[in-house]
Design goal:
Blueprint (H helix, E strand, L loop, with lengths): L10 H11 L2 H6 L5 H6 L5 E5 L12 H11 L4 H6 L3 H6 L7 H4 L7 E6 L15 E8 L3 E9 L1 E4 L20 H31 L5 E6 L4 E5 L1 H18 L10 E13 L4 E13 L20 H15 L5 E5 L3
Parallel strand pairs: 1-2, 2-6, 3-7
Antiparallel strand pairs: 3-4, 4-9, 5-9, 6-7, 8-9, 8-10
């Protein structure tokens, strides 16, 4: 009988391979290889799970645009009325399957990355193939930091700047009232997406007690929510009280936030060879959590995307935070 080469691999080496493989669907397929594989697969401590979308409802395509129209036409307090205490609407809006069916056998996982469906990609605010919307949130029991980078156009620069196009001293420009309102709506939309993901992550943490790090991103690499070891521990310590307050919303409540916004009509990124138009950076933090915009906070960035683009996003955030002009606002809890 011919020897099976897999038998030469130690259990520890197989687990290293499984952890490198990571993808939950691929790992579950390994179960059929052999009884030995089946006994070891679910001991993997690093798992990536891409969740398929539910069947798309075409009636929801224009919902966000309708909401924008109402918000721009009326005072922004309409938004609080729209989202307050609507459990049925929140439940119907869930556009993906629960990850627990796939993850229920992975009980030794320490690091988990959940990728949710893109749900149509960009929001209704960001029109055009060249537009950009990226966000990153860090949560503990509630939001710790939040950053949003957006642009009406993000393109590779194909030719050097002309002598009249020097943006090295770009100190920020004034937003119109309409532009500012749109940015506020966009910010609220991203906060809602992040708080819904955080709610899902808390449910996963309740079922997976070994978890130390967890990320929830989306298929189009638009935004991600991150929790490290300290944040996970904070959630576990307060999860009982949070369940009672969040169960009706099916999202984590957003606390009072301080918000700072930078804007540039055109932003040149010479290090990475890109140019942005209508560029906006928004940084939010809970009230009383220090000054927004100091250099020590650059670690809150790390937007999702391809490697070359991620470097350009970081460059854009750094350059915009150097601008002298910015907008300071506060946002009430919702």
């Amino acid at each position: 009988m011919e020897e099976d080469c897999f038998d030469r691999l130690t259990d520890d080496l197989l687990l290293v391979i499984f952890n490198k493989l990571g993808d939950a669907k691929s790992l579950t397929r390994c179960i059929s290889v052999s009884k030995r594989f089946a006994s070891l697969v679910f001991e993997a401590d690093t798992v990536f799970l891409s969740i398929p979308p539910r069947k798309h409802n075409p009636l929801r395509r224009n919902l966000f645009k309708i909401l924008i129209g109402k918000l721009i036409a009326k005072p922004l307090h309409f938004f609080h009325h729209f989202i307050a205490d609507r459990p049925d609407a929140n439940r119907k809006a869930v556009s993906f399957y629960s990850p627990e069916e796939v993850l229920k056998h992975f009980r030794q996982v320490k690091t988990m990355h959940i990728e949710l469906p893109s749900d149509g990609g960009k929001t209704g605010l960001m029109e055009g193939n060249d537009s950009l919307l990226k966000w990153k949130a860090r949560f503990g029991s509630e939001i710790k930091s939040f950053a949003i980078l957006s642009a009406t156009s993000f393109q590779k620069r194909v030719q050097p700047l002309s002598s009249g196009d020097d943006f090295s001293e770009n100190n920020g420009e004034v937003l119109t009232d309409g532009q500012l309102k749109l940015q506020i709506v966009l910010t609220i939309s991203c906060l809602l997406a992040a708080s819904a993901r955080h709610y899902l992550m808390k449910q996963v943490l309740e079922e997976h007690h070994a978890l130390e790090n967890i990320i929830a991103s989306d298929a189009c690499k638009q935004g991600k929510v991150c929790m490290g070891k300290d944040e996970v521990a904070e959630v576990r310590n307060s999860i009982k009280s949070m369940v009672a307050t969040d169960s009706s919303l099916e999202r984590t409540r957003v606390p009072d936030l301080s918000m700072r916004l930078w804007y540039a009509p055109v932003l040149e990124l010479p290090e990475n060879g890109y140019i942005m138009r209508g560029a906006t950076l928004v940084v939010l933090r809970p009230n009383g959590d220090g000054q927004i915009g100091n250099g020590r906070r650059s670690g809150l960035f790390g937007f999702d995307g391809e490697e070359c683009e991620r470097k350009a996003y970081s460059e854009a955030a750094r350059e915009m935070m150097k601008m002298k002009k910015s907008y300071l606002m506060t946002m009430e809890s919702f």
